[in-house]
Amino acid sequence: MPPAIHSGLPYVGRAIVSVARKELRQTFRDRRMAAILFVAPVIQLTLLGFAVDLDVDHVQAVVVDQDRTPASRALLDEMLADATLDRALDAEDPSDALTSGRAKVAVIVPQGFARDRLRGRPVQIQALIDGTDPVESQTAVAAVQEFLQRRSLSLLTESIAQQQAAGRVLERPASVVIEPRILYNPSLSSPIYMVPGVAAVVLLVVTTVVTAMSIARERELGTIEQLLVTPMPPIALLLGKILPFALIGLVAAGLVLAVGTHVFGVPLRGSVVALFAGTVLYLMSTLGTGVFISSLAQNQQQAILGSFFFILPAILLSGFMSPVENMPAWIQALSRLDPVRYYVQILRAVLLKGADVTDLWWPLCALAAFGVAILGAGAARFRKTVT
Questions:
Q1: Which has the closest alpha carbon to 176: 211, 207, 150, 202?
Q2: Whole-model pTM?
Q3: Which of 11, 29, 140, 274 has a 20 to 30 A CA-CA distance from 189?
Q4: Same domain, residue pair 207 and 150
Q5: Per-residue pLDDT for the chain (387 aa), expressed as one digit of tens each?
Q6: Terminal CA-to-CA distance of the chain, rounded, Å?
Q7: Number of folded domains in the chain?
Q8: 176 and 278 share a domain?
Q9: Residue 234: which domain range?
């Protein structure tokens, strides 16, 4: 007679417990998996809490004092004493600072400021605002206007009091008029600001995850060992694995930018050479990261989790959603190791500001250094794990 079939709730409960115990044992058998499951969320939450700060302050400002008088210096010092604007540098021509991203605001005090103010003539001060980030630019415009309105009211009150004390009324009391001009994104359109960041994130996710999964799958199925039986050297095998994904990344970048320019109206004002060079160097970084992650993973599950462990902090630290300048100093230092930050900077500078290679030499060099380092480390790990 066939053995009796166990049935009923007690047996089902024991079966569920047994399967769950087996899955837990198998999951935590590898300490790297336990670290990914428990340590990674804590690190990501910490970075998220510090990195995502939607309160805009410490906006970098370049000062152009064409008057060079005590009155103009006092006005600028008082304006920049607020926490919203930080004095980044003084310059004769603010265009380079705005194009390269070293400053977001340029405040220009015209020649004759002190003279016109003493004579009771209205004085115009120009503020050039980098409009690539609508939230940051609106905050900067509001801060400059609020200060100068207060200052103008103070001057009006002071002038009227002086004239009344002298026994006459001034026909045109002294005042300060702000003339804001928003550059690069005058309409403060959010899609124009977001599309370059989305392009960087899409390339990061596609190339990093696909590369890590592809190599991990080969290792999990044992096909890498079969390929190594052939005379093919490991470096040739690695290049054969990543070059197709590099081509896919270039095509994906072209498609994303085409959609951005034709659907969302994102302009292409800068150098195509700088854009192509930045994309190639960025793909070196993302593909190298995928290779390095795959060299640490034993299976596809670990490769996917390891990829997202890198991707989420990289996005948060890139300035894609929240300006890097708003982050704590130690987070800003950590973001210098993030290739996404430099690529987002290149995309926004080329597309919106009309930048060329000479304007972007620093982020291009940073991407090149990071790409060579991570791709070299990934290749070394790959060779060590397959030989």
A1: 150
A2: 0.66
A3: 274
A4: no
A5: 444 444 555 655 665 666 556 556 765 666 665 665 566 556 654 555 555 555 566 777 888 888 888 887 887 777 777 667 777 777 777 777 777 777 888 888 888 877 877 776 777 778 888 877 776 777 777 777 777 777 777 766 666 666 666 665 555 555 555 666 777 777 667 777 777 888 888 888 888 888 888 778 777 777 766 666 666 677 777 777 788 878 888 888 888 888 888 877 888 888 889 999 999 999 999 989 988 988 888 788 888 888 888 888 888 888 877 777 777 788 888 889 899 999 999 998 898 888 888 888 999 999 999 999 998 888 888 776 666
A6: 55
A7: 2
A8: no
A9: 190-386
Residues 160 and 259 in one domain: no
Together in a domain, 209 and 300: yes
Q: Would residue 3 count as lying in a domain? A: no
Q: What are phi and psi of 133, to 5 degrees?
A: -105, 105
| Tokens representing residue 117 in the block | 């103010």
Encoding tokens for residue 337?
Answer: 């190791």
Q: Of 129, 148, 183, which marks where a domain is finished?
A: 183
Same domain for 147 and 241, yes or no, is no
